[in-house]
Write a structure and sequence with these properties.
Blueprint: E1 3-8, H1 12-21, E2 27-32, E3 37-39, H2 44-48, E4 58-60, H3 61-64, E5 71-73, E6 77-81, E7 86-89, E8 94-96, E9 99-102, E10 107-108, H4 116-119, E11 120-122, H5 126-135, E12 143-147, H6 151-160, E13 165-170, H7 181-194, E14 197-200, E15 204-208, E16 211-214, E17 218-220, E18 223-226, E19 230-231, H8 234-237, E20 256-258, E21 261-263, E22 271-272, E23 275-276, H9 281-300, E24 314-320, E25 323-328, E26 333-336, H10 337-358
Parallel strand pairs: 1-2, 1-9, 2-5, 9-21, 11-18, 12-13, 12-18, 13-14
Antiparallel strand pairs: 3-4, 6-7, 7-8, 10-19, 15-16, 16-17, 20-21, 22-23, 24-25, 25-26
Bound molecules: flavin-adenine dinucleotide.
The site of flavin-adenine dinucleotide has 33 residues, from helix 1, helix 2, helix 6 and helix 9.
């Protein structure tokens, strides 16, 4: 009889885990995922640009998983019984597992700012991108306020700054805390040159229809995009797993939370040598592949496992369709301008190619431009 592995979430981490588990003999994999396509989330800011299309950034699961033997349950996992090792879904299925990977990603963090939930539009997935896209007019008299000067906020400001009036608000005194100051200053200058109004060092106090109030200023807006970080989804909190001080499932250095249950991706708050590893698609894909391998080792009874310590190949941020900033080669080399943008585009292509290879699919797949 085959070993049953259930993977919850078909994002970067879930597909990374499946990629590794496919190598393990006598394993049957079930993916529980409500969406019809794998969302290439880091590409979504591009979908917001005038000629972008959200559908170009989705790879259909029926195509990806065809002829792989992997079952796709197109539903949302809603609860898990740890004693009987059963996952229940929104559509009423009960799925037994021997091993489980929780890779359902994160939710936008929405602090209790008056008006935020009513008027702020998060950008966390393809559905959010579709809703924002529907509201965009691509005219300079439409003002977009973006709150959050991290990776997402900066990329969206760059993509929308060409065709709209954009105001980017960040509570910290500088943009892009994940990058060194020199690179963050470059991003600042680049966005300024594009005409983006940059407001640093002020927190949002309240949001009303068409007016956002900060500590000292206020700005009118037509669309307010909230890019204020991520948090653990509520349904994960309700599972009764041990949680760390930030509310993430408390995992050991191998990603295991309780016996036979692992986390990966945004849900795994990874700390290596006392240093927090930022939640990115790159880390999610590596964590998923790693957790899949660990499960494979344990199924086959082979040992010699080393704990998860991702080696990052770089961090690249688009500043507009032609410019970018970041670093490559394990933190060694800063890159700016067209070369950074080209490397970022190349990394998107590499990921798609890797997917095609991992699932033995012809290139280009649907969803590939
Ligand atoms: C706008 C934006 C830009 C970004 N840009 C970059 C970038 O340039 N580079 C980078 O490295 N990272 C970037 N990131 C971060 C990156 O997208 C995430 O870190 C990454 O997607 C996390 O992967 P994951 O597999 O954990 O989650 P996801 O990729 O979000 O996948 C989670 C999946 O789980 C599914 N799911 C959710 N709930 C359930 C449930 N209850 N049951 C079953 N399935 C469920 C969802 O439908 C989804 O398909 C960006 C993020 C955003 C929002």
């Amino acid at each position: 009889m085959s070993v049953e592995v259930v993977v919850i979430g078909g994002g970067y981490a879930g597909l990374g885990a499946i990629g590794s588990l496919q190598e393990v003999p006598d394993v049957h994999i079930t993916l529980v995922e409500p969406g019809s396509g794998h969302q290439l989330i880091p590409e979504l800011p591009e979908a917001l640009a005038q000629h972008g299309l959200v559908s170009n950034h989705l790879v259909p699961y029926d195509q990806l998983l065809a002829d792989t033997g992997i079952s796709h349950i197109c539903s949302r996992a809603s609860s898990i019984d740890w004693d009987s090792r059963t996952v229940s879904t929104d559509s009423g299925q009960q799925l037994s597992y021997d091993w489980l990977v929780l890779a359902s990603g994160s939710d936008p963090s929405m602090p209790p700012i008056p008006g935020l939930r009513q008027y702020g539009r998060p950008l966390r997935d393809a559905a959010d991108a579709g809703r924002i896209k529907d509201a965009l007019r691509y005219q300079k008299d439409q003002r977009i306020v973006i709150v959050g000067g991290g990776l997402t906020g900066v990329e969206v400001a760059g993509m929308l700054g060409i065709d709209h009036e954009v105001v980017l608000i960040e509570a910290a005194p500088r943009l892009l805390p994940a990058l060194g100051k020199g690179l963050a200053d470059y991003a600042f200058r680049r966005l300024q040159r594009l005409g983006v109004i940059l407001v640093l060092g002020q927190k949002v106090q309240s949001i009303e229809p068409h007016l956002v109030t900060l500590e000292r200023d206020h700005y009118g807006y037509d669309i307010l995009i909230w890019a204020g970080g991520i948090t653990v989804p509520t349904w994960i909190h309700q599972l009764g797993l041990p949680l760390d001080s930030r509310g993430y499932p408390k995992a050991d250095p191998y990603g295991m939370v309780i016996d036979h249950v692992f986390v990966a991706g945004d849900l795994w708050h990874v700390v290596v040598d006392g240093q927090e590893i930022a939640a990115t698609a790159q880390v999610a894909a590596l964590a998923g592949a790693y957790v899949g391998e660990i499960i494979g080792h344990r199924i086959q009874g082979v040992g010699n496992e080393s704990s998860f310590a991702p080696r990052l190949r770089g961090m690249l941020i688009s500043l507009d369709p032609g410019q970018g900033v970041g670093w490559v080669l394990h933190g060694g080399i800063p890159v700016r301008g067209m070369s950074a943008r080209t490397l970022k585009a190349l990394s998107f292509h590499q990921y798609r190619l890797k997917l095609a290879r991992r699932f033995a699919k012809a290139w280009p797949m649907a969803g590939s431009e």
